[in-house]
Amino acid sequence: MSSEKLQKVLARAGLGSRREMEAAIADGRVTVNGKVATLGDRIELRDKVTFDQRPLTLRGADETPRRVLMYNKPEGELCTRKDPEGRRTVFERLPRLKGERWIAIGRLDINTSGLLLFTTDGELANRLMHPSTEVEREYAVRVMGEVTKAQIKQMVEGVMLEDGPARFTDVQEFGGEGINTWFHVVIMEGRNREVRRLWESQGLTVSRLKRVRYGNIFLDKRAKAGEWTELTQAEVDDLATLAGLEARKVPELTPDEKNRWSRDKNKRRPVQGVRRPRSAPKR
C-alpha cells in the first residue's frame, strides 16, 4: 500500500485546505498511531489518525465523495467558519452533512458578493486554488472615477503591489452612468483584495465588486443572493478536468441533509447595515 503526505489525506477528508492542515499539524493537533504528527509525515490508510483528539476514518482518493455547491454570497458575510464578533458567515447557509465538511474554493472579502464554490473533496479544492493551475476568476466591477485607456493598459501589463506583481489578463467595459462605470476583469490567482488593489494602484476606487465566474462555472439564476445550488455531474466533471483529476460520480444531497438546512435557515440572523446586492451587468 503506498503512502501519502499527511496533510493531503487530511484535506481530502474535508477538514480544510492543505495549508490549513499543515498549520494544524504544526500546532500538534494531529496524531498518527498514538504519536503527535510532524510536518513531512507520510501515512497509509490503515494508520490510526486523530484530529483534535477525534479519530478519523481515512478514505482513498477514489472513495472521497465529490460534492460541489454554487453559492451566491451577499455582501456582509464572512468567509470563515466562526466569527468572534458573531457576524454571519457563508457556512451558516450551507446544508449540514454527516461525516463530511464543506471546503470553500477560494475566498471573497466581506464587501464582495457573488460566486463561491464549496466542495467536500479537499484535493479538488486544493488544485483549483493553487496558483499553478491558473484558474480564471472573473469579476464584475463598478469603478468610481474616469478610467483611461492608459490605466487599463497598465493593469493588463502588470503592476507591482506590496506582495508582488499582479495583472488582469482581460478587462472589458460594460457601460454605466456618470463616474460609475462597470467593467468585467479576469485574474488568474486569488490573492487578498487583489482586484480592488489593482484598481487602487491607478488612483481609482471600486464601489461594487461581484465574482461572476470561477474557472468554467458561471454564477446564474439557479442561486439568488444568499442561496446555494448543487452543481450537476457534468459541471463537477468539468471542474475535475480543469484540476487534472479523474471524473467520479457525484452523490446528491439527501432529503435529510436538505431539510436540516431548511430548518436551520429560519434561525439565521439578518445582516445589519448592508444593502441587498443588485445584479451586476451580464455577459
What does this structure look like?
The protein is an alpha+beta fold. It has three domains: 60 residues, Structural Genomics Hypothetical 15.5 Kd Protein In mrcA-pckA Intergenic Region, Chain A (Roll); 114 residues, Pseudouridine synthase; 79 residues, Pseudouridine synthase. Helices cover 22% and strands 27% of the residues. It contains seven helices and 17 strands. Strands 7, 8, 9, 10, 13, 14, 15, 16 and 17 form a nine-stranded mixed sheet that branches. The chain has a four-stranded antiparallel sheet with strand order 3-2-5-6, with no helix packed on it. It has a two-stranded antiparallel ribbon with strand order 1-4. Strand 11 and strand 12 form a beta hairpin. Helix 1 packs across helix 2 and helix 1 crosses helix 3. It is globular. The protein starts with a strand and ends in an 18-residue tail after the last helix.
